[in-house]
Each structure stands twice: as structure tokens, then as C-alpha cells.
Design goal:
394 residues; Immunoglobulin-like; 7-stranded mixed sheet; mainly beta; 2 helices; 51% strand; membrane; 9-stranded mixed sheet; single chain; repeat
């Protein structure tokens, strides 16, 4: 730094106009009233460095860029060819160097000098801060993994100062994570489930993925310089189909019409079908929708048991690339002539519904054993009532 300053002084002595007389040098003593305050500005804004001088008289003030040994201005004249540099003063006392549309390359030390002998000078530092920016090609894109696998999401951001990376789930829902147990007695580093709402790290690792991990993750980069930026990364977890029904056993009279229903969820979409005694049943309806990248299918089939063969076990089956799942609904015969009603009984291990009615197969109305609004097994207790059917689902 000393060598640079000496070199700058020599340059100034060669280019500085010699308008100051010897008597003026002896009769006046210009001085700085205070240090140049360091300035911090975001890139793209204007920077203003201020140098306050007393008793300047006929002496002159110059601004220099220290690291490049560049003379920026002498008195009222801009020397540099940089069109973003400007100079102004108030009563030859307050001298201001203005840099418009600041670039990162403008960061550094700036010197204010008076052409005394020896020359007087002071320096101020211009710091240029840069808002965060996520580097897309170094940041994870949307990703698909199978259940049970691990995944690491990566987020890279630039900025000055270096941004902090924070991971959150969309809508600020908790992240189910497996973390090492914190107990001192646990020496095997067993992973235990924890619910965490944010993680501060460039990388986010999720272990032993389950369908609960599926969703959008936000990589948020911030460094105190607005604006904060984020990127949305979608994690899709493929899993084998799951099936549930609201009843396992049905008692129904001969000739009575009813509809069986199973609800499946999977990712990717499953192939669904009904079996009876290992034979594929034709017909039925398969209503599908996608909820949060999960394929949900409500499968129904309508029956009218007339013979002994029509009673027995019916299987609803769903399969995709990750596995196959099935559930059974058993249909039993129940005969009763003069009363027409139904009721359902449930226990810890199974549940069944009894549908009783007239044996007249021609005038009998269809008794639907389903509810089109029932789409999730975790909705708690449902109480659905029709003209003659009362059902309670566990």
C-alpha cells in the first residue's frame, strides 16, 4: 500500500497544475475536518464519497482510485474517461465523488488528496453488496424417487455477502426427517423421526422416503440485501398402491342389488380390477383424480346375487411398478321376508353390514353400499343415512 501511495503522489506531482505560490503554501494550512466515511451500497445504485476540507484557499483537491492508481478528478475536472464518475463541491469545502450505477468492480479504496507539500490525503472504502441469486444449473430440479430411497436436494446461490440457504416446505408444513438420536446412552446413532420446519444448509438430505415426504420444497437464499429469492423444487415419491374399504363383510338377501366400493391411492397410477374366484369381473366404474401427485381411484361394481355362486369373496386389486395390493369383501346370504332395513356391526378386527329385505328380485330397489364423498380413510367417523340404510364407518 505504501508503494502504491508513493507512486500516486509522484503521478500527481507531475500532472498537478502549479498554481499555488510559495507564499500561499507558507501562509495557509489546509486540513481535513474529519475522515471519509466508508460507504456500502447495493450494486446498481449510486455511491457518494464525501471529503471535507478547511482553509483550502488556492490549493486543489483530487480524487483517486487507490488499487488501480487512477486519477479520477482534480478540482472541478473529471480526469477519468469513466462516464459514471462525477465531482461536485460546496463552497470549495465539501468535495463529493459520485459514482453512478455502481458495479461490483467499483469496490475498493478511494483517496481524497490536497496538493500541499508534502501532500495530505485520506481514504474511504466503498463496499458494493449484491442481492442473492440462485444458480439454477447448480441447484436441484424436480426429482422423483421410490419410497425407501434417500434423496439430497442442493441449492447454490451467489451474492455479496454470501447468502444463507434455508429450506422450507411449501405452506410451511413440517418436514418429516430422520435424525440421529440425541441421547448420550445411544451409541449406535439410530435414526429417529423428527418434525422440523426449516433447515439452514446448502444441502437437504431426506432419508428413507415415504409418501409423507412428497410435496414442494423451497430453497430460500438471503443475505440481508433485498430481495430474498427462492426456488420451488417438487419431490415426487413413488409408492405401491394402498387400498381401503369401509366394510369387510356384507349380509344381503337373494336378488337384492348392491354396489361394492374400494378406494386406492398410488404413485404412479395403478391398474385396478375386481376378481371373484380368480376370475376377472367385467364392468364396474373407476373414477380417478390426482391429489398432490397421488393417483386416487374409487372403484365400484354393482351386483345382484341370485345364486350361491354369486355369494362369497370379492377382491379389489390395484397394482403398479412398485407392487400389488388387494382387499377382500365377503358377501353372505341373509334371508328375511317381512322387514326391510340394514345395520352394520364392527369390531377391532373386522366390520360387516347386514342388508335385509324382501326376496322379490323384480321390485327391489338398489341398496348402494358406498358414498361418493368418502375419499379418505382418515376423515374420522362418518354417519351416512338414506331411506333405509344407516352406516357408521370406523
Amino acid at each position: 500500500m505504501k508503494k502504491v501511495l508513493v507512486h500516486i503522489l509522484l503521478i500527481l506531482q507531475n500532472v498537478w497544475p502549479g498554481s499555488t505560490t510559495f507564499s500561499e503554501l507558507n501562509n495557509s494550512d489546509p486540513k481535513f475536518s474529519g475522515p471519509i466515511n466508508n460507504v456500502t451500497v447495493p450494486v446498481g445504485r449510486d455511491a457518494l464519497l464525501t471529503c471535507i476540507v478547511h482553509d483550502l484557499v488556492s490549493y486543489k483537491v483530487a480524487w483517486l482510485r487507490v488499487d488501480t492508481q487512477t486519477i479520477l478528478s482534480i478540482q472541478n475536472h473529471v480526469i477519468t474517461k469513466n462516464h459514471r464518475i462525477g465531482i461536485s463541491h460546496t463552497e470549495h469545502r465539501i468535495w463529493q465523488l459520485r459514482i453512478r450505477d455502481v458495479h461490483e468492480s467499483d469496490r475498493g479504496w478511494y483517496m481524497c488528496q490536497i496538493n500541499t507539500d508534502p501532500m495530505k490525503s485520506q481514504m474511504g472504502y466503498l463496499d458494493v453488496v449484491v442481492p442473492p441469486d440462485i444458480v439454477d444449473y447448480q441447484t436441484s430440479q424436480d426429482v422423483v424417487r421410490a419410497s425407501g430411497q434417500n434423496v439430497t436436494l442442493t441449492c447454490t446461490a451467489t451474492g455479496v455477502p454470501l447468502p444463507t440457504i434455508t429450506w422450507r416446505r411449501e405452506e410451511n408444513t413440517p418436514m418429516p426427517m430422520l435424525l440421529p438420536a440425541m441421547s448420550e446412552d445411544d451409541n449406535d446413532n439410530e435414526l429417529q423421526p423428527k418434525e422440523i420446519y426449516s433447515v439452514e444448509s446448502q444441502n437437504l438430505t431426506l432419508w428413507q422416503l415415504q409418501r409423507g415426504h412428497m410435496g414442494a420444497y423451497l430453497c430460500i437464499a438471503s443475505n440481508g440485501v433485498p430481495p430474498t429469492v427462492s426456488k420451488r423444487i417438487m419431490l415426487v415419491v413413488n409408492f405401491a398402491p394402498t387400498i381401503w374399504t369401509r366394510y369387510d363383510t356384507i349380509y344381503v338377501g337373494v336378488g337384492q342389488k348392491l354396489t361394492l366400493e374400494c378406494i386406492t391411492e398410488s404413485q404412479p397410477a395403478s391398474i385396478n380390477f375386481w376378481l371373484k374366484n380368480k376370475e376377472l369381473l367385467q364392468g364396474g366404474s373407476y373414477d380417478s383424480l390426482i391429489v398432490g401427485h397421488v393417483h386416487r381411484i374409487v372403484m365400484r361394481i354393482t351386483l345382484r346375487p341370485l345364486t350361491k355362486h354369486d355369494f362369497g369373496e370379492y377382491k379389489c386389486i390395484a397394482k403398479n411398478a412398485l407392487g400389488e395390493t388387494e382387499r377382500s369383501i365377503t358377501l353372505h346370504h341373509k334371508a328375511k321376508k317381512h322387514v326391510q332395513h340394514s345395520h352394520q356391526t364392527s369390531s377391532r378386527d373386522n366390520q360387516f353390514i347386514v342388508i335385509e329385505g324382501y326376496k322379490d328380485s323384480y321390485n327391489q330397489e338398489s341398496i348402494p353400499i358406498h358414498n361418493s364423498q368418502f375419499l379418505c380413510p382418515h376423515n374420522g367417523i362418518k354417519n351416512i343415512s338414506t331411506n333405509r340404510i344407516y352406516q357408521v364407518y370406523m
